[in-house]
Amino acid sequence: MNDKVEGLKRVAQLRWRAEEAARKRAILSAEIPDDLSPLGMKKVIHDLRVHQIELEMQNEELRRTQVELSAARERHYDLYDLAPVGYCIISPEGLIQEANLTVVTLLGTARAALIKQPITRFIFREDQDIYYLHRRQFLQTGEPNACDLRMLRKDGTAFWARLTVTHAQEPATSSGQATDAAPLSRLVLTDISERRQVEEALTRSELLLRTTQQLAHVGSWELDVQTQTMIWTEEMYHLYGLKRGKPVPGPDAIARSLDCYLPEDRPVLQAAFQRCVEEGDPFDMEFRITTGKGRQLWIRTIANPALENGKVVRVTGLVMDITERRLKAGQGKGERSSTGK
Q1: Cis (ω within 30 of 0) for the bond into 247?
Q2: Each residue of 162-221: pLDDT tens digit?
Q3: Domains of the chain by range and CATH?
Q4: Rounded to an integer, what distance in angstroms lies between the CA atom of residue 287 and that of residue 178?
Q5: Most exposed of 150, 230, 258, 334 (fewest Cβ within 10 Å)?
Q6: How far does Cα 173 stand from its chain's mean position?
Q7: What b/e readout covers 39-71, taking b as 16+ CB neighbours within 10 angstroms?
């Protein structure tokens, strides 16, 4: 019943508006003199047509503006809400003012539940000092900076995130002048859990390799043929009795290790190394060396080339301390045996 009454009211209101519009048009028509000459009538008609065209052009411009605004809104949605990283606008008090859909997904919390909440609520308790120092540095220097810390989802699970803070665009008044309000900051939030897992796995792997090489007295190295850069593992420095990092990775490592060999053995090793690099011939040889600390050792050195399109691009090798085995075998000092493989 009420719906029917409301419908009748709307019809009556439309009728009234139509009658008002007709009355106004009649008033305008009355302003045109009855004794208007044909030439004057043509001018009035021309002016009305021009006015009509102007209105149509204005209407078309409004429609085009609406289409552009709609497209801009869609682009903003794609670039902001659907961005692969999270965006938050943070107030000077540290409260979330805005958040895109990526933040909503990462934190597992509805957008409405994020607004006006302190960002620290979603930071792992033990990592909140990291964020505090990070934010304080930004407020003091105004320079964008980043930090890695753990954040919490609504269900209590944690994930690693990189937080980058920058200045947000300051709001302006209707006249275009900037306001005196405290500046807002933009927080870019990136999920780096997978990267951290890879880094932690790599760290564990390196620790395992280092421990294994120490126990087995085996060092390893790799040479980039193009750059002539040689990289050593930690045990290589230990075997040669050299300070870690000296020689640094590069051509000096080759020359410095060669100095540890007996003068009569150096040409043999150099020739084998040259054939490996230029012709791709691996080698497996045993030598006696004098370490940087003056110790005399027997070592076994192995090198294997890696080829691409028939050209050696990389050489990897091992150096093993075989002093104990050689001594047990009862072989005399200065003896050298070389075998190519």
Answers
A1: yes
A2: 999 988 765 444 444 545 556 788 999 999 999 998 888 888 877 877 787 777 789 999
A3: 83-169+180-191 (3.30.450.20), 208-340 (3.30.450.20)
A4: 76
A5: 334
A6: 35
A7: eeeeeeeeeeeeeeeeeeeeeeeeeeeeeeeee
